[in-house]
Design a protein that fits this description.
Strand 7, helix 6 (176-185) and strand 8 (188-192) form a beta-alpha-beta unit. 44% of the residues are buried. Helix content is 41%, strand content 19%. It has helices at 14-26, 52-62, 80-93, 108-113, 121-140, 176-185, 196-208, 230-241, 257-269, 285-295, and strands spanning 2-7, 31-34, 67-74, 98-103, 144-147, 152-156, 169-172, 188-192, 217-224, 252-253, 274-279.
């Protein structure tokens, strides 16, 4: 099992983000990712949030070893041809460390604010599936002819090809239909803030629908907090996720190092290939450093 950090470019200055990326790599993590939002991912919406493709590029340039990803790009925000070419550039800048995450989109507030159609769940899922297919074709085929429900290509080229043979396409998915689709169209699957039990159940749906189940990679995003009083715990969850009562708390690692080691072991037993710590500002550097020093060595 490998470990990473998912640091949304929200509520931080760019210099703070760059410094955090360097520190995370120095701590020994193998992955750093950003997210794709125009607004904050939880209230208050007025927090600053950097655009994903530029942040992803900066992340690639600021680091030298970690896998660099986005969990996940929204299929509704950019044309797949544009994002396929952007991904190639990031892959070359990072010398083949690029990881491509894709999702159907969920943040209705920012869709509406920017005048982007917020389609029904079924339509968004079909769009995402077609998007993944088109991006993979552009990365692997010399020219692409494609006539789909949402996208049409005629002798389209994507040159150069990725630095890697073909970057992994991670699908972010949670509901039954989305999980099945993730298995069919993705190379990897990620889910956030779920218990080990729910992760294991969802993973089985994904793998059951994958034509390459033995090669399929799975990961879970989890929160991380230290040993806090109930009042401080509630404040931590509200400040970072907007609520202390939702399902997020099921996917937060907390307590002593021994307790966190036990919980991570449960995700490992459920089949997780990656455990990715999802951080939101303000960053608790000491808690993250303790995780790297006291938890990760038990799983290497």
């Amino acid at each position: 099992m490998q470990f990473g950090v998912h640091l949304g470019p929200q509520g931080l200055e760019m210099d703070e983000l760059r410094r955090a990326w360097r520190q995370i790599e120095d701590l020994g993590f193998d992955w750093i990712s950003v997210w794709d939002h125009f607004y904050a991912a939880a209230p208050p919406w007025e927090q600053p949030s950097f655009e994903a493709t530029v942040a992803h590029t900066a992340l690639a340039m600021e680091t030298s070893r970690v896998r660099v990803g986005c969990l996940v790009y929204s299929a509704g925000y950019r044309h797949p041809g544009v994002l396929a070419n952007t991904g190639v550039a990031i892959d070359h800048l990072s010398k083949g460390r690029f990881e491509f995450g894709l999702g159907a989109g969920w943040h209705e507030t920012e869709y509406r604010a920017y005048g982007i159609p917020f389609e029904t769940p079924a339509v968004r899922l079909r769009r995402m599936a077609e998007y993944a297919e088109v991006v993979r074709l552009l990365w692997t085929e010399e020219v692409v002819d494609y006539q789909g429900e949402f996208y049409q290509f005629a002798q389209a080229r994507c040159d150069p090809k990725p630095y890697q043979r073909s970057p992994r396409i991670w699908i972010g998915a949670r509901g039954p239909r989305a999980l099945a689709l993730a298995g069919r169209v993705g190379d990897a699957w990620n889910i956030a803030y779920v218990s080990p039990e729910q992760f294991g159940r969802s993973r089985e749906v994904v793998r059951a629908n994958s034509p390459r189940a033995d090669e399929f990679v799975t990961g879970v995003n989890v929160g991380l907090m230290g040993e806090l009083s109930e009042a401080d715990r509630r404040d931590f969850l509200i400040r970072r996720y907007g609520s202390a009562d939702g399902g997020v708390a099921d996917g937060v690692l907390e307590g002593s190092s021994a307790q966190i080691i036990d919980r991570v072991g449960q995700y490992q037993d459920a089949g997780a290939d990656w455990v990715i710590i999802a951080l939101r500002a303000p960053i608790e550097e000491e808690v993250l450093a303790r995780f790297a020093a006291e938890v990760i060595p038990n799983f290497v």
